[in-house]
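Hi R.,

Here are the chain sequences for the assembly we discussed:
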Amino acid sequence: MAKVKDYVQADASLAQAKKSSPKFRKLLKQGHGAHGSHGSLREIEYKGHHITIRTTYEVRVDGKKFNAPLDVSMVGEVSYMGLPNVSFGSAMDLMRAVIDQFPDAFAKGPARGRGNQDHSGHEHGHGAKKTRKASKKAGG
Amino acid sequence: MPVRRNIVTNAAARQSYVSGAIALKNEFTGVTTQMLGIPGPSRQVSTWDRFVAWHSAAMGIAHRGPLFLPWHRLMLRTLEILLGRALNDPNFGLPYWDWAADGQLTRPQQLAAAIWNNNCMGSASVAPGPFTLAAFPVRLADSGSGNIIQANRALRRARGSGVPQIPNPDLPRRVSTAAILHASMTRYDVSPWSINSTAGMRNRLEGWFPSNDLHNRVHIWVGGDMLPSTSPNDPVFYLNHCNVDRIWERWMQLRGRQYQPTNNTSGAPVGQRLNDPIPTPFGPSVTAANLLNMTAIYTYDSLAV
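And here is the predicted structure of the full complex:
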């Protein structure tokens, strides 16, 4: 067991925050780049049979592709990283909540596409590949 | 040594937390959005907002797996140190919100509970209490896909409204916190180390099993800026997580300072194991093992959950 010592350090000085920016930038890029998904993989054993179910969603809002990946749990509940603390009974319920929560991202007119639509060129975009293990973890 | 106290019953902790939050919201260290790769015009990023960005980028490791509790313990302790510095009080302790106490109340009483007084978290749906647009603007927000975009607006809440599937929820009740401490809850976490773990304390306390309970339900109940990946925009975020940390501490007091998976556990997710480094933009990496015993670093005024 670890010794009782404070291992946590926070910016030795105000100037340290600026010096740490390259490390912070790398952390943000890695973190946001990890949102990509090749779908959720569910696996069960039943009467000597091994069952795998891979699920992917293609969601469009007003004809535009919604790029954030959706995950489905073993019990069929759906969630995604944009609302990281909620699981929904269906993808339809999830998308209703997304539109309620992020109306600007779906606004008709100039604001359209600012958020979660058609942002493949975004610096923190979702193009990064996700390993099978990571995909399995995310979605079960 | 910092003592973490109930924000509702301790006026000094309440005043310090509100003052410190506003101070860090307006503390600029030269870090800009451009330096952090956040799209849009280059603007200053305050110390408070660096935590918002950190949490948003950590969705892949900080939630839905074993690291949920140690990762947030690291985040809370980091903020506590910086709040102590801003307040010139090295013994400052983050306060907690004992939300299960409010969960025992009727729905109207939950909405009118003391935590929402205007000298505490405030009751308004927009710019609540001390967190006015001028004092506490939301500058980094979730785009809708877990990424960060720039904003300039007031803090938002939708207390008690819920989401389409969970309309008008109540706060978690004592029966849910009691389930965490039940004699059957002997292991920290279990395979498959995810939201699909049907036993283990972590997945229950996070609120995936049963779904939308405990920690998750508090985010849902507060709503607004507490829902997306940028939920540390709302000072209530830390009060919620401090209470979660308190419940974890009580569980460890009963069941031992254990953590699964270890680095020898077959099939355990890399990055989530006992001795895997947890990166932080505020200092050197730490491990879950480093964070299990904080009893000489801070204490709680009560572990009655």
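Chain B touches chain A through 77 residues (CB under 8 Å). The domain at 3-294 of chain B is CATH 1.10.1280.10 (di-copper center containing domain from catechol oxidase).

Let me know if anything looks off.

Best,
T.
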